[in-house]
Amino acid sequence: MSRDSDLDQKTVLQAIGVLKSHYRSFPLESQVWARSGHRRSPYRALVLFGLSSRTKDKLLVDTCRRFFQEFPNPKAMLNTWPRHRAAVARVVRTGQMRFIDSLVSKLKESGGSVPADRDGLMAIFGVGEKIAECVAAYGWGQEALPLDGNCCRVIERLMGLTSTNRTGSNSGVKSWSAKVLRRWLKATYVEHREWMTALGVAMIDVHELLRLHGQMLCGRRPDCARCPVPGCRSRRQQYSESAEPGIDESLWEDWRELLLERSASSEEGVIGQAAGIMEQEK
Questions:
Q1: Are residues 31 and 87 in the same domain?
Q2: Across residues 198-203, what is the average pLDDT?
């Protein structure tokens, strides 16, 4: 991604600083990881983000709750596969079964371990760069930058870019893919790591700040009057509200909770209960 000047980079850096202050009461991933990272499950992260494509948040949470009730860990999945494959097919969408089958194959190949490297993760059907970055960050605690649609929309508006149109025609307006934006933003973070660290922002926090802003104010219909970010080249109204936003800390609590390992005793109970249910369904 070429830069007209340092202005693009400076605009995004300034936005990150403002967003960190604006959403200061909301716990970002680096804070959550410091508190409960030791309980995070790479397996759960892979399943959750692997099933997230084209799935609304509420449906994703409901689906994963049912899935983890039956297969809370790799051992439970491998011990009951393929005998209970039909039970999984009743939980996930038909198009998601190729991901599940590929996941099981990878777990068998690795003795039940989820890959910690991007290439290993992307060898699983349906796992692209974004999902691999999610698993690296939320499952393994590695430095990563997923960038979902919310994030890309915020960046594009900040810098006056547009998404690639579906026809692929050249209208003379800049357009960038998520992959290009991710790599450019990663390079920006690395170049300004000292400043980011002093600000208290890890690489994954950049993703979360942009995602949160895309959900709260910079949605499909941006609420520019409440947006404190300066220098946005797509601003439609002047900023007129300075009060700290009231954000419920439980906004992402459901899916963050799903990523946590269960205690051995509770998992044994769940596995036994799920096995009984599946036997009854035969």
A1: no
A2: 98
